[in-house]
Design brief:
7-stranded parallel beta sheet, Rossmann fold, 49% helix
Length: 251
């Protein structure tokens, strides 16, 4: 096992973020949990041996800066950044408003950029760091009804690749994990939206999403967390978009 590191996980109150935090804690790392819901963060923190609940909205630069400052006061510089917070709203292209576009880009692309820009200098100075962005399979292929989300996730993968190239000789690796449909509250919202739009039951809508993946089921958040851990322990892997999608995108 690598020595204990100071980790910051965004979107850590549920779903993939919660699973990632638990996996890192299992390996003995200190995990700062960042998210908007303070009560939910505290509930997750109570299950982990060395954790810090840091309520913040990643789309607010001042709150992001305050979160980093708090972690640094308590534990020192962030050594592992997992930029996981993200969300998307389905809409046909013609109904994708400027406001929806801007909100989606801000959360899924601009916020990871700010997080990486803030964390990277200390990692470079320390000669070691791990940056992992939780992207999506739509970072690698377009998908109908999610123009803004697909564009944002494509951008996030570009951000990862460019940053990895820039930092390749510094001891800092930068990767993306690209899940398919994961069994999380975000997918629950997608299922509800599909059911409302099509008249199908939520069970039928969920089964339809599962069938889109060759393995015939939704991805478990723990499986995504294992991919994040792989990025942490393997220093030769950088600039990659690692698919955790049941074989949906073969690359």
């Amino acid at each position: 096992m690598t020595r204990a590191r100071t980790c910051l996980v965004t979107g850590a109150s549920r779903g993939i973020g919660e699973a990632v935090a638990a996996r890192l804690a299992d390996d003995g790392h200190r995990v700062a949990l960042l998210g908007r819901n303070a009560e939910a963060l505290e509930a997750v923190a109570a299950t982990l041996p060395s954790s810090l609940a840091v309520p913040a909205d990643v789309t607010d630069p001042a709150q992001t800066e305050a979160a980093f400052a708090r972690v640094e006061r308590e534990w020192g510089p962030v050594e592992v950044l997992v930029s996981n917070a993200g969300s998307g709203t389905a809409a046909p292209l013609a109904e994708t408003t400027d406001e929806l576009w801007a909100r989606t880009i801000e959360l899924n692309l601009t916020a990871p950029f700010r997080l990486i820009r803030r964390a990277a200098p200390d990692m470079v100075a320390g000669g070691w760091g791990r940056i992992i962005v939780v992207a999506s399979v739509v970072a690698k292929r377009g998908e109908s009804q999610v123009t803004a989300y697909s564009a944002a996730k494509h951008g996030a993968l570009g951000l990862v690749r460019a940053t990895a190239a820039e930092l390749a000789r510094t001891g800092v690796t930068v990767n993306a994990v690209c899940p398919g449909y994961v069994d999380t509250p975000m997918t629950d919202a997608t299922v509800a939206a599909i059911a409302a739009r099509t008249g199908r039951s939520e069970d039928e809508a969920r089964a339809g999403l599962a069938r889109r993946q060759p393995i015939g089921r939704l991805i478990d958040p723990v499986e995504v967390a294992e991919a994040v851990r792989f990025c942490l322990v393997n220093a030769a892997v950088t600039g990659q978009g690692i698919n955790v999608d049941g074989g949906t995108v073969q690359s």
